[in-house]
UniProtKB/TrEMBL annotation:
Compartments where found: Membrane
Entry keywords, A to Z: Membrane, Transmembrane, Transmembrane helix
Gene3D superfamilies for this protein: MFS general substrate transporter like domains
Domain annotation Major facilitator superfamily (MFS) profile: ranges: 64-494
GO cellular component, one term: plasma membrane
Protein known as: Probable fluconazole resistance protein
Length: 541
């Protein structure tokens, strides 16, 4: 989730070769344009230009934001609605329950692979086209999964549905950056992230009631497909393109057609897509950041653990409330409501800290203050293990009322939301010039944690018992707890020694302005300049 579409900040320009290029039978290259080249460039006409999505009216912004939010909800819904179908799928296709869980894990594996394609595509063709195409293909695969005649077909359809479901998770963060400015973007991203977490907790509830009814497990996939079809219709009718470059490219094309002057163009049309450059900057750089940067490595491991717990609960909650307490399987999913409320509480905590962050941002001349992102994360790091221990030592005893372990979800959900969201915001602010690559590394690793944890959840809780299995997770959470506190104290010092996260952005920005006459790019930082310099992503919100 929350990926920022990567692209080179200094795109390669087309240059004339020394070859004798012929345009026709007796015509070679014409002389260069005599007038100033900038006279032919299509740019924003002003801050209120409708090509700038930030200048739109609030109702217009909200229309696109709501549609994007629904896309995100459908994508995350599809990941866990299958959890209630594991038992009937294993019975119908004569496979073990562990093998049947692959329908859940393969979908999440799709989350890891999809953004590698959709993120760059959103930079080449805008936000709307990839989302519309991905939504259509996702819907097709969900209906194919619903009608699968064998287990292999079901698993393949679930995997590819996950690949295309990852598109909104990869693109919506960038679209929100197009729509919202510094003061409101953090709040918008918080609501977006809440949908990412609410989807996996609310869909098992609905899926359980569907599976136990006469409809059967296939309707968990049918209903997800119907939701995908509805999202597709909303995308086509109400979603507007928000990416500035794509809007200006279309404007330039329209002007060329109207005037017949084919010299008119947008600057991005001079870019050349270089495969080696894409591999060097977007495939290798995330791995370099992951294994060379202590901040990226520890934050990624922490968020991967959190993400794994998110999907582990899909197996742990039925064991506690259905097996041990004898509650009807569909009713036993209702305790997920505690986690949903916890996520909303976490969203409120993050939003409550936004005014403080905006004040610090203003005091720092609009430049990010990464360590200020860690304050809600510190609170979440304390709440999260408390919630896990609470769940572990109250869920194992049927004599304790079911509401007690259910209420543990308030702390656990709040911890998941605050840790995960603010960890990503911290990476964006700290690694501003290579933010996309740092998030790509995080996304890739955490998705595999989310895919793997459900596979051993059942055996873990059966063999260790709810109390000690939950306690083991709690102890791991305690081990991770110091991370935000350590980075709050020493993060700036670590960034000063980093090749990719320079702390002298203001100085470098001034130097760039003096040399180039423009203040659009923020650069600097040793090897980060040559290996991974990327476009500044908003202000890290």
């Amino acid at each position: 989730m929350f990926d920022l579409a990567p692209h080179p900040s200094a795109p390669i320009k087309r240059t004339r070769t020394s070859a004798n290029i012929q345009l026709g039978p007796d015509r070679c290259l014409p002389p260069p344009l005599q007038e100033e080249k900038n006279a032919y460039l299509v740019e924003l006409t002003g801050p209120s230009d409708p090509a700038n999505a930030k200048s739109w009216t609030l109702p217009r912004k909200m229309r696109s934001a709501i549609v994007l939010g629904f896309d995100t909800l459908v994508a995350s819904w599809g990941s866990s609605v299958y959890s209630s179908a594991v038992t009937p799928v294993s019975m119908e296709f004569s496979v073990s329950s562990v093998v049947a869980i692959l329908g859940l894990t393969l979908y999440i594996c799709g989350f890891a692979t999809g953004p590698l394609a959709f993120a760059p595509l959103s930079e080449l063709y805008g936000r709307k086209l990839p989302i519309v195409v991905a939504c259509f293909v996702f819907t097709c695969f969900m209906f194919a999964a619903a009608t699968a005649k064998d287990f292999q077909t079901l698993m393949l359809c679930r995997f590819f549905a996950g690949v295309f479901a990852s598109c909104p998770l990869a693109v919506v963060g960038g679209a929100f950056s197009d729509l919202f400015g510094n003061e409101t973007r953090g709040i918008a991203i918080a609501f977006f992230s809440a949908l990412v977490f609410i989807g996996p907790f609310i869909s098992p509830i609905v899926g359980a009631f569907i599976t136990e009814s006469y409809l059967g497990w296939r309707w968990t996939e049918y209903i997800t497909g119907i939701m995908g079809a509805l999202a597709l219709v909303l995308d086509v009718l109400f979603l507007e393109e928000t990416y500035l470059k794509t809007i200006l490219q279309k404007r330039a094309g329209s002007i060329r057609k109207e005037t017949g002057n084919f010299a008119i163009h947008h600057e991005s049309e001079e870019e050349v897509i270089d495969f080696q450059d894409l591999v060097h900057k977007h495939l290798l750089l995330p791995l370099k950041l992951l294994f060379r940067e202590p901040i990226v490595f520890l934050i990624t491991i922490y968020t991967a653990f959190i993400y794994g717990i998110l999907y582990l609960f899909l197996e742990a909650y039925p064991i506690v409330f259905a097996e041990y307490r004898g509650i009807n399987e569909s009713v036993a999913t209702l305790p997920y409501i505690g986690l949903i409320l916890g996520v909303l509480i976490g969203c409120g905590i993050v939003i409550a800290f936004e005014p403080r962050y905006n004040r610090k941002l203003k005091e720092n001349n609009g430049l990010p203050v990464p360590e200020q992102r860690l304050l809600p994360m510190m609170l979440g790091a304390i709440l999260f293990p408390i919630g896990l221990f609470w769940f572990a030592w109250t869920g194992n005893y049927p004599s304790i009322h079911w509401i007690v372990p259910t209420l543990s979800g308030l702390l656990t959900g709040a911890g998941i939301m605050t840790i995960f969201l603010q960890a990503l915001n911290y990476l964006i602010d700290a690694y501003l010039m290579v933010a996309a690559s740092s998030i790509a590394a995080n996304t890739f690793l955490r998705s595999f944690f989310g895919a793997g944890f459900p596979l051993f959840a059942t055996q873990m809780f059966h063999n260790l018992g709810v109390d000690w299995a939950g306690s083991l997770l709690g102890f791991l959470a305690v081990a991770f707890l110091p991370i935000p506190f350590l980075f709050y104290a020493f993060g700036e010092r670590l960034r000063k020694g980093s090749k990719y996260a320079p702390t002298d952005l203001g100085k470098n920005k001034k130097s760039d302005d003096e040399e180039s006459g423009s203040g659009n790019d923020v650069s600097g930082g040793g090897e980060g300049d040559s290996e991974g310099k990327e476009e500044t992503v908003g202000d890290g919100n």
